[in-house]
Amino acid sequence: MSSIYIETYGCQMNFADSEVVNSILGKEGYTTTKDINLADYILINTCAIRDNAEQRIRKRLHELKALQRQHPQLRIGILGCMAERLKTQLLEEEDNVSFVVGPDAYRKLPTILQLVQKGEKTAETELSTEETYSDIQPVRIDGNGISAYISIMRGCQNFCAYCVVPYTRGRERSRDPHSIIEDAQMLFSQGYKEVTLLGQNVNSYRFTEADGTLVGFPELMERVAQVSPLLRVRFATSHPKDLSDELLQVMAKYPNICRCIHLPVQSGNDRMLKLMNRHYTTEWYLNRIDAIRRYLPDCSITTDVIAGFCSETEEEHQDTLAMFRTVRYDYAYMFKFSLRPNTYAEKHLHDDVPEEVKTRRLEEIIKLQGEIALENNQKEIGRVYEVLVEGTSHRSKEQLFGRNSQNKVIVFDRGNHQPGTYVNVKVTNCTAATLIGEVVEQA
Q1: Residues paired with residue 78 on neighbouring β-strands, in sequence order
Q2: Vertex 183: Cα angle to 164 and 217 (nearest 5)
Q3: How far is residue 378's CA from residue 396's CA, in Å, rounded to a whole number?
């Protein structure tokens, strides 16, 4: 039977989707190979959140032409958000692409590959209001056997002014909670020690059961945490407008729910937040930060931020820097604004902040965040954390690395410890990105 090679770019959701694709095609007899030279089909699961993400895919397609010359029967398909955004345009512009499949059409892949095998080019990009793939058990790809993703919902309807996700992934719909719990139970039985619940906005999770019971995200988190106290539970991503005290109370109740919340701020200025259509103010955001600190004093907080959004003034940029100084994030994903086609910003706003100003503002945010992260990590020195060992350190085979509940990477001497086990590590040193420690007998 034919073999497939999957490359995945972008967010955690894309990686989870690739595992769904692997399952769908595996049931039809296709095999997955890690050697691209042995593939009959290359599937590239793409991201469209920024222009540079799409340009990276364009470059990759050009690189693959050499491989296609060596293997004339090799076919390439584009999956995911870039496929959904550009549709048949990709087939017209990229002569080595044979098929294009959006995020809600993966069940049709076996049929599509049959058409491609006959020499046809095809695109299937219709969005669904119901598809959640809840009945498909993902086949893990390149996993470490320790941590796994579980998609709990698909789509988004927040319609932030800068974002293409509602147009590439459709409206929100939530999975049956029973299928989510079954996934978590199965992963734990297979030896996995950690699961991350995924959604564009997990706080919006809502599912009405047959008896009329409404299951929200706090209830779902509690059910997953109850699978086993030995199973760590994480989630991504939270929208500030929906982060409830109820969820924080559930997190405080279960030690195996990790003490880390990703809470994108995007800007520290109210006018910018309104223009971005974020549905909260800086006052509301800081109220949520205070609630996290109150219920979970040992919780790390990470964020996303955009530098140079439409019409952002220097004073408004300074407000964002002030927000960083106030919250003191442990980590941040920091980007320059990239105008995306068909978004509200593209249709109604003006990308009028000069590129050099965007770059300078981003550099200022990055510099400040680096200083804050280092200061935060220096405060960790002397503390002892339970660390889930994930693998060998990139810098030395004599060291291992893992993460604590706060999702901070800790590096320590290998000793006799193995990936997939828990060890107690005392922090002895740090960088802005990494904690360095030594194994101790107990916390």
Answers
A1: 44, 100
A2: 55
A3: 22
Of the candidates 93, 83, 87, the one whose C-alpha atom is nearest the C-alpha of residue 44 is 83
Q: Which two tokens stand for residue 265?
A: 């701020």
Rg (CA), the chain: 22
Report whether pLDDT(144) > 90.
no
Q: What does the CA dihedral 411, 413, 418, 423 come to, rounded to 10 degrees?
A: -70
Dihedral over alpha carbons 50, 52, 54, 56 (to 10 degrees): -150
**Angle, in degrees to the nearest 10, between helices 177-189 and 217-225:** 20
Token pair recorded at residue 162: 């800068």
Beta bridge partners of 216: 206
Q: What are the C-alpha distances in Å from 333 to residues 10, 47, 265, 380?
A: 13, 16, 10, 22
- Token code pair at residue 98: 């044979």
Model pLDDT for residues 40-88, shown as the tens digit of each residue: 999 999 999 989 999 999 999 999 999 999 999 999 999 999 999 999 9
From CA 229, how far away is CA 384, in angstroms rounded? Answer: 20
Distance CA 195, CA 184 (A): 7
Dist. CA 107–CA 271, nearest whole Å: 43
SS3 label, residue 131: coil
Tokens 């590590």 found at: 425
| Candidate from 23-27, 63-67, 205-209, 394-398 with smallest mean pLDDT | 394-398
Give the closest residue to 388 by CA, choosing from 230, 262, 235, 239.
230
Query: What's the residue count for the chain?
Result: 443
Instruction: With H, G, I as helix, E, B as strand and everything else as coil, classify residue 286.
Output: helix
pLDDT at 19: 95
Among 285, 237, 82, smallest CA distance to 165 is for 82
Backbone angles phi, psi at 240, to 5 degrees: -55, -35
How far is Cα 78 from Cα 213, in angstroms, rounded to an integer? 39
What does the DSSP assignment read for 328-384?
Answer: --SEEEEEE----TTSHHHHHS---S-HHHHHHHHHHHHHHHHHHHHHHHHTTTT-E
Q: Are 309 and 272 within 8 A, CB to CB?
A: yes
**pLDDT value at residue 142:** 67
In degrees to the nearest 10, what's the CA dihedral of 183, 243, 288, 239? 90
Chain center to CA of 303: 12
For 209-252, how does the pLDDT look when each residue is reduced to its tens digit (9 = 90+)? 999 999 999 999 999 999 999 999 999 989 999 999 999 999 99
DSSP code at position 266: B
- Packing angle of the helix pair 282-295, 314-327 (nearest 10 deg): 10
Report which secondary-structure segment, H or E, holds 399.
strand 399-403
